[in-house]
Every structure is written in structure tokens, then in C-alpha cells.
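Board notes, transcribed. Complex of a protein with magnesium ion.
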Amino acid sequence: MGTTKVKTDATFGYLKAMGNRQGPHALASEFVASSLAKWFGLTVPEFALFDLTADACFDLPRGARTQPGPAFVSRHTPGRTWQGSATELRDLENPTDITRLMVFDTWVRNCDRHPPDLATRKPNYANVYLADTDRPGRSRLLAIDHTHCFDAGRDLSERLSDIAKVKDEATYGLFPAFEPFIDTGELHWCMSLLRSVTRELVDAVVARIPSRWEVDPRAAVALAAQIHGRAAFIADRINSGWPARTAAGSHEPATEGG
Ligand SMILES: Nc1ncnc2c1ncn2[C@@H]1O[C@H](COP(=O)(O)OP(=O)(O)OP(=O)(O)O)[C@@H](O)[C@H]1O
Ligand SMILES: [Mg+2]
């Protein structure tokens, strides 16, 4: 992706620009999924779109170069990436966000934290970010890096709304070390949130993708259909006991209603 730490007039930020080797649709994925993560109540670094001008372009590794146009920038948040231990998770001030992050990754089909199929992709601990807090030794779980959501980093196309994608039953984002932290009450809360996702809400998020990133209108419609369809699908799955005991720890399935 060529993510680059840059100095702004206010702070440091992480810039993902056009010209990156994954293409502009990775930026659309980042922007849409980060917006959804924020809506879902996860902590995400403050982010914005930024117009990279021609005179500010710079070389990226392996012969690539940024191109002028809308870029995604997130504010530097002091902290560190997860090393994979349970101890680090016990020290979180927001441990229920472990459950929420796993539900979110499954909703948006994010294969770039813990992928469903380890034969095709390795877990990426560097996309689980532990931000420093005011309390020594305590950190806060943040959701970062959403360039590989919806269709595993492929270009966004009409195929996004294929039934196999909308009803993809794979579990994303469930690191084995997360399993003891999967919380029934939080699953229930996520189910309610997912049930409240309207097509209007999703369309409004998708409509903010800059035209320069060249997501064609049919792909944008399919993207919105996938996000909206999966919200209901995942809510139903939670109601049916997902993630099953075989996949997760010893929690009980969430029940809907009273
Ligand atoms: N807002 C932020 N605050 C602090 N650190 C960040 C922030 N954004 C990114 N980072 C750091 O930079 C690293 C790379 O960023 P990120 O994971 O978003 O992109 P990437 O891995 O280069 O992208 P891709 O997986 O699409 O190639 C992260 O693992 C993290 O260490
Ligand atoms: Mg990353």
C-alpha cells in the first residue's frame, strides 16, 4: 500500500495515496470500512480525505510513486501494534471491543486481520493496534487498516453483491487469542446495531467515495448491497448462536428479544 508517515501542520499522519500498488479501490475500501467501523462504535484513529497535490507527490517503495488526487490520511495515535499475547488483551480498557471488532471484520469481510482460511493468508497482528491511554499499562484497542475488506483486495465490481459474498459464512477477525474474550452481551449489542443498518445509511457512506477513485456506479451499488445484506445476515447468525463453540470459546449464544 505504501502507507507513509507524514508530518502535517498539526500532527503526524499516515497517508495512503493514489498511485499505491493496490490501486484506488483499496482507498475506497479503507474509507468506506473505516466509516462503518466508526459508526459501529469501534475506536478508529481520526481520519480524513486529503487532496494530494502534484507538487507534494513522492516516490513509494518498489518503483511506485504517489499520484495527485484524494488520499486517505489517519492521525497518528501513540501506541503499538499487538504482539499476539493474551496479556496485552487483558490490559485493554475496552475489552468488549474484541468481540465488536470480530463481528465488524466478519460484516465487512476483512481478511487482513485474522483471515478465515489460513492456507491462503496469514494472520496480520500489525492491524490490531493498541493505543496508549492516560493509565500506565492500559491500552485501547483500535481498528486500523481496512484496505482488504469486502472482496479480499480485489477491485470493487458488480460481483460484490453475489449471493456467495452476501451470505459468506466464514468468520473473519477471530484470532485464537480473542476467543476467551468473546462476550455474549456484546454480541447481542452488535446484533441490535446490525439490525439498525438501513440502506440509506449505507448508500450515504458509499456515496462519499471520491469519483477520482473510479469505482463504477454498478460496483458502488453492489458494494452497498453487500454491506446492507450482510448486516442482516450477520445479525441473524448471531441470533442463531454464531460464532459457534467450535470456532470460539465457551460463551453461550446470544438470544434475541427479552
Ligand atoms: N493512525 C495511526 N496511528 C498510529 N499508527 C498507525 C496509524 N495508521 C497506521 N499506523 C501504523 O502503520 C502501519 C501500517 O498502516 P496500515 O496497517 O494502515 O497500512 P498497510 O499495512 O501499509 O496497508 P496495507 O495492508 O493495505 O498494505 C500499522 O501497522 C501501524 O503500525
Ligand atoms: Mg496494515
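The longest strand covers residues 69-75. Residues 60 and 83 are 27 Å apart (CA to CA).
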